[in-house]
Specification:
Blueprint (H helix, E strand, L loop, with lengths): L1 H12 L6 H22 L6 H10 L8 H24 L4 H23 L6 H19 L2 H32 L5 E7 L16 H21 L16 E9 L7 E9 L3 E10 L1 E3 L2 E3 L6 E8 L7 H32 L1
Antiparallel strand pairs: 1-2, 2-3, 3-4, 4-7, 5-6
Helix pairs in contact: 2-3, 2-4, 4-5, 7-9
Length: about 350
């Protein structure tokens, strides 16, 4: 079977490259037949010709429920979305920009319909309104006083969040004192040598910088996957507050751990992320694998007074509880390993 597929693939490749008209025809045929077959499997009663007529002309047939046409439209739009993503991966953003423009226009039309009670708006009308909005945004961008105020507000909010988390962290450390382990609360930028896993061959500042670079990279990837774009500029230390809770142990079966709170300012919000990293034991040596991290976040206003302090406290408790849970899991893993030995 695979040999037959290879022959067919080779035959198909011999026709490449196809001209744009043929590619468009193939794409349209795929769009219609894929939509029809996929929906038919789910019980949609539209025929192939009805599906094609609706997708090409936007017209419906008598006696068919609206839900079936909505299913057809949604399936076709989903295909277009995947095609746009595939093109974007190849650095061609034409289709995805068209889709965004279409959705923005549709949304604005709906909003104006609600506000002004009109059913339709001309393209020129929408362009005019968008132009006014763009002019206002440009004025805001060119306003140095406004920018300074915004930056001051962000800095104030970042500092207050940091102080709030630091207070909660110290209180929690006090409640969880133990002779077996030692907790240390530290500002990332002020750390020197009281850091877990430092050996004679590792200088503290070099180790900390390398570790945090990896942590920030993981955070950026995590947030970007949730459509929150974190740029290299945002990740700079002077724009980011980092509070760390280090667990240091001298007992073999108790791992070392780092709970990190990272406060990231964006243009319109403040994002608080926590990461948890627990060391693993390899040949009697504690090793951190920064790819094995627990990450979560909350997002809020750039104004400190807008933050719900209970929500912030709950987020901290969630982070600390998860920190202890991950430590317990690693302890149990080590005990089981000792029993097998």
């Amino acid at each position: 079977m695979f040999e037959e597929l290879a022959i067919l693939k080779k035959k198909l490749d011999s026709y490449r490259p196809l001209d744009s008209n043929k590619m468009a025809a193939i794409g349209e045929k795929l769009r219609i037949e894929w939509t029809y077959n996929s929906n038919a499997i789910e019980g949609n009663t539209l025929s192939l010709s009805e599906t094609a007529f609706f997708l090409r002309e936007g017209l419906t047939s008598k006696g068919k429920p609206l839900s079936e046409y909505l299913e057809t439209r949604n399936h076709a739009e989903a295909q277009e979305y995947y095609q746009a993503l595939d093109m974007a991966d190849k650095k061609d953003y034409t289709l995805i920009i068209e889709m965004i423009e279409r959705e923005v226009t549709r949304t604005i039309t709906l909003m104006l319909n609600v506000i002004e009670g009109r059913d339709a708006f001309s393209k020129e009308d929408l362009k005019r309104r968008l132009g006014i909005f763009e002019e206002r945004i440009e004025k805001l961008d060119k306003d140095p006083i406004g920018k300074a105020v915004d930056e001051e507000k962000r800095r104030h909010c970042r500092e207050r969040i940091y102080q709030f988390l630091e207070k909660l962290t110290k209180e929690m450390v006090e409640e969880n004192k133990s002779e077996m382990v030692r907790f240390g609360v530290e500002d990332y930028l002020e750390q020197t040598s009281s850091y877990p896993l430092l050996t004679a061959a590792q200088e503290a500042q070099h180790y900390i910088k390398r570790y945090m670079s990896s942590v920030l990279q993981n955070i950026a990837q995590y947030l970007n996957s949730r459509n929150i774009i974190i740029t290299e500029e945002t990740r700079k230390a002077e724009e980011t507050s980092i509070l760390q809770l280090n667990l240091i142990s001298q007992r073999k079966y108790i791992p070392q751990g780092i709970l990190t709170f990272v406060i990231l300012p964006t243009r319109f919000t403040i994002i608080i992320v926590f990461t948890i990293n627990i060391s693993g034991l390899e040949k009697d040596e504690e090793i951190f694998d920064t790819t094995q991290q627990v990450i979560d976040y909350i997002q809020g206003s750039v104004l400190w007074e807008d933050w719900d302090k209970k929500t912030l406290e709950d987020f901290f408790v969630k982070a600390f509880t998860e920190f202890l849970k991950q430590i317990e899991l690693e302890i149990e893993k080590r005990r089981l390993r000792e029993k097998r030995i």
